[in-house]
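retry 2 of 3: previous attempt timed out while embedding fructose -6-phosphate. Reduced batch size to 1 and resubmitted. Inputs unchanged:
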Amino acid sequence: TKGGFSSFMEKEIHDQPDAVRQTLLGRSDLNGNLTLDELRIDPEELKKVNKIIVLACGTAAYAGTVAKYAIENWCRIPTEVELAHEFRYRDPILDDNTLVVSISQSGETMDTLMAVRYAREQGAKTISICNTNGSTIPRESDAVLYTHAGPEIAVASTKAFLAQITAAYLLGLYLAQLRGNIFSGQIKDVLADLGKIPAKIQTILDGAGPLRELARSMANEQSILFLGRHVGYPVALEGALKLKEIAYIHAEGFAAGELKHGPIALIDEGKPVFVVVPSPRGRDSLHAKVVSNIQEVRARGARTLVIAEEGDEAVKAYAEHVFYVPETPTLLMPLLTTVPLQIFAAELAAAKGYDVDQPRNLAKSVTVE
Ligand code: F6R
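retry 2 succeeded.
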């Protein structure tokens, strides 16, 4: 049931503190060491991995992009992300030291399944991050790391996305631990930060009133843009996808650095632009660059709708609206910054009178190629 919410999507957005909590549960011991028992691949084999390829479609592929940043940061293993349906057709280079990580909520997406089969045939090791017990992709993979988001009913993915990102962090930390890339104290710190995420998501959900009001006022917009850098980039892509899917508004996500290479020509008076800002406590240059991107679009007349970390005063001067999320390390920020964009899309689609759970032309599980 919808549990008193207006749609399954709203319910699932509100399920997210629990989806993250459940996905973290039971995966580390008292010493803060990760124990991923479901990963039935010989640890010695995983130590030999010299390349990781993440395969997925749609929202799951954006979770994969977040995974790339985290895995490369913690494990120092070159990691690429590819849309599963593009992968097979480019004659990819794989061998038995390649680890293929597929991400799929349903575990039945045909494009992803075919890519995993292909990777196995080439000798790669395959791990599936999946939300559906016993589904096809995990059955055909060497190992599985389940997300515990619970069943996702709304076609537009929300809680599965956050759970996928959470599982990908765990996988990255596990590989780093195994390979000795990271100190156990550092793993403990990240796990502690992850443990605080559910309460922080709850804070965002509880404070979403002004964001919902803004969404309702924007029901007649023709086009909305989303900018982000680093892990904020896949969040921008996800924010745009949610809006296209359920509100049928043209939306595009860009890497903020690409602006001057073309997209800035789209900016005119009154164009709404969401900007996902990294923590000001992180790498200085990253934060400063995004703030200057806000300034650039504002100077050309854009309405700047900014998602930033609590306490970030620097964004205020150039923002029409700022929606703050609680403090967290930059690498983990997608678990927070995605939430306002999901709420924005759901509220706007509802304001337009659309069926938020069953958008036109889409199916929950895409079992054809
Ligand atoms: C977007 C959405 C889709 C799915 C994609 C992959 O909201 O739900 O983009 O993410 O079709 O589906 P799974 O994860 O089941 O493989």
